[in-house]
Every structure is written in C-alpha cells, then in structure tokens.
Amino acid sequence: MSSRRPPQDVIKRKIRNGVTTSNLSSQATKSPKRLNRPHQKQPRSAGLLSLSHLLSGNIYSYRTPTKIIVFLTITTVLLVFLYQTVLPFASRHFASLHWSFSNTSLEEIDFKSSGWRLPDAEVLQKYGSDICNIERVSFNNLPEARFETEFRFKKPVLVTFPNGAADWTEPGLWSRSELSKAYSKWTIHSGQSLEIVRTGGNARHASSFQEFLTNLMADKKTGTLEPMHYVFDRSFYGRSNLPKTLHLPKYFEVSSSEDDSVFFLGSSMTGVVFHKHSDTWNGVVYGSKRWFLYPNTKTPPGGVHHGFSVLEWVDHVYPNLTDVDKPIECVQQPGEILYLPEGTYHATLNLGDTIAVAMQKKNAVTKAELLSYEESSEAVMKIGRVLYDLGKYSQSLPWHIRAIKMDPFFVVAYIHLAKTFSALRDYKKAETTFKKAIQLSPNLWDTYKEYGEFLLKQGRHQDALPVYKKGTELMPDMVPFWFYYKLCQLQTGDLEGAEKSEKMIADLKARTQIERN
C-alpha cells in the first residue's frame, strides 16, 4: 500500500517556510519534537553549548552559524583564561619541583640518611666559599707514578672518586646510628680549635662517644660562636673496626709502623687553627671541610703560635688580607681525599657535621722543616724568645718588633713584645702592647694570664681583678685563673667572692683527681 501524500496546500506552505519537497518525506518520518518550528519560541538554554559538547569538541552537532560563533567565542575565552592563569601557576609549580629535584643530589640524599646534619643557610652564607685553587684530580687519572712525581712533597691535591667515599670505604658504617650502636660506650677525646693545636694535636676532654653525640657536639664556648668540642682523637680509629673498611689507592696505603691515625668528628664551625706536620692525607666521609693552606716558607698571618681560634681568624684576619697574603684554599667535599705535603701550614673549618679520618707520617723526611727562612715571622719571633730567655732583653726587642712588622696580626708576638718592654721597665709601652693583643684577639686566654701577672707585679690588684675574671670565663677549668682571681678578691675586700672562688678550686681539684683515677 502506498503512503498518503500530503494535500497540495500543505506542500505550498512548507515551501514558503523553507522546507522543500525533497526533504519533506524524511521529516515526516521523524518525531514531531525534532521538526523545526520557526514560529515557536525556544527556551534560552537551547542556544547554549553543553559542557560535554564543548569538552568533546563536538562542533558538528551545531550546524547553524550562530551556534558556531558562540562555541568559538567561549573556546577563545577559556583558552585566554588558561594561558593567563592556570598555565603560569602550573609552570611555576613544576619548575619549583624540578629545581628541588635537580638540587637534591644523590650525595645529599645519602648524607641525610646518614643521620649527620647539613650546614644551615646562615653558615654557608658566612663561611662557605666557591674559591678553590687546589688542583682536583680524579682517581682514574692519578696513577701512582703521576702522584709520586707530580705531588709527593711538592704540592697539595684533592683526589676525587666517581662514587665518592663508597670507592674507598663503607660509608654506612660511618653513619651516626652505626657508630652509636658500635661505640656508644667507648671513650673519645674532644677539644676546641686553638687548644687542640696548643697541646700538640691532642684533644684533652674525655667523654663517652654517646655523651659527645648527645650533649657535647653542639655545645658552644661562652662569648663565641665556636662549639667547644671537636673530636680530634689519635687512638679511637685504630682501636675500632673502621680500618677494615678502607681500600685506598696505593699511594695512600697505611703502614702501622709509619703512620699515625686521627679520627675527626664535629659540627659546623669546628676545626683546628694553623699548624704543620709531616706528610698527610685527610679523607672526608660525610660533611665538608674548608681548608686554608700556606707553604712552609710563609707563616700564616696571625702566626701559628695560637693567637686566634679558627673562627676568629676567619672573621677578623682573613677579610683584611691582601692578595699576596691570602691562603691557598678550597672546600673539600664528601668522598674526597686531600693530600698535604710535609710542612704545609693548614687550618680547617667544618661546614655541617663532618666526619673524617687522616693519616700522618710519624717522621719528617725532607729538609723543609728549617726555622731560619727569612720569610718566616715565626722564626723571627723564636729568635727573639731565645734571646729573652737568656736575659738579653735589649737584643730580644728588635726581633719581636720585626716579627710584628712582618705580620701585624701576630698576637703572640705582641705578648712577647709586651713582656720584653716590662723586663726593660718600660711599663707604659708594655701595658699598651698587652691591650693591643687583647684588641686583636679578645678570647685568647694567654694574654689575660700574662697581663694579669704584669698587673700583680705592680701591686695593681683592682686592675687585675677583671683581667682574671675574664680568664675564668674563657678557661673555667683552669685552676690558676681561679687562684689569682681569688687573690685579687681578697685584696680588694670581696670576701664572699673569694669564698666562692675557693669552692670552685676545690671542685676542680676533686674532678681532676677522679679523672686521674
């Protein structure tokens, strides 16, 4: 059966309304809801694009020019919004993530897992340095023959390793937790930068390893920023199992008959002042160590007779040095081994918790260790001291003056010059020179000891009182300071203070007796 055809008047009306005969039959088969009804007003929402269509980009479902224009307009607005707001935020966010990742090296991650602390930003800003004029050579490029001919007894070198300390030891056994577990009850010796060198490289304060880690490692000296305790121990390493972890290049191999070992452990701003000795190498397992070096023909400014702590030297002497007097220096990174030829003057400053081991030859083998080189203010002052000890004060005087002229920071030379002026009965110049020494190095207890004696010899107990008081603050465990402080208190009528000082003396003597037993 054929389908019914629409009446002629209906066809004409459809044609007038834009519907042709060719599509009339197809529209007739569709649901009435899908037919266009131009005269029927559509809801406002009907002309808007749905979010799902927008995101899917289904532009083909909208065939009228008006809807396409609306779609393009909304898309443009969204793209502008993304470009100006979302993308910059994401860019900054991912750039930050990338910066953090790229600046967190494998060594840093390994350091954090070790339990030791990295230096804080303030320490790095004040004491860190990019200067390095010590040659760095990879272990892979430093065979024994090259080391012996190019560096042995000639110049320092920093030896680097592809895998850091893991190439010459087992870093995990040097971690805080492993050392604490293995050696917590062992006795270890620590001290401060100046006192360690003053006593010939032997730290005097004994404690258990655990006590050092828990209580002493961050303890700072009164009036200074320098921690009081830096492990500088000559027996701990040799008694431990750590030597079994070493597998060194042949030119660094250890001989028990020829080498002395030193174990180092300290927090930021610990270290040692200038000194020198026989051939040595120093390997840092964790942390960083800033080195200051001078050849054996040039005494470090400030002298090697312990006028400054290492921090005082860096803070007060180093910034005032001319280019001629500046040291050779570098920051030794974890895993590197530094070789120092015999007789090289050196001082160190740790950045972050630093743990290291060094080997020193027991005996000097070169002729470099002579005192009579003209460039050495140290040698000049020693000549003056010898003449002073012989009672030849007038002959001693010009040698001390010459030493100070060579090195204006030579605090110990000022002390000996003041003593020489006093021996020659020029008390005014003596006192002026003592005060100059205190001005140069306010925390050097030697000056207060000598200046106090100078004042007591003149019967000036009132003037000596603050001098000895300062001495007790700098060296609270030193009985002579308390003894003379008590004497000044008695002479000036401070009986209550003298009684307290006497009690302190008794406590110190009792403590010393216990330590000896």
UniProtKB/TrEMBL annotation:
Bias-annotated ranges (Basic residues): 31-42
Compositional bias annotation for Basic and acidic residues: 1-12
* SUPFAM superfamilies, sorted: Clavaminate synthase-like, TPR-like
Q: Does the keyword Transmembrane apply?
A: yes
Q: Which domain of life is it from?
A: Eukaryota
GO MF annotations, alphabetized: cis-regulatory region sequence-specific DNA binding
Name listed for the protein in its UniProt record: JmjC domain-containing protein
The organism is Candidula unifasciata
**Region (Disordered) spans which residues?**
1-44
Q: Which Gene Ontology terms of cellular component type are present?
A: nucleus
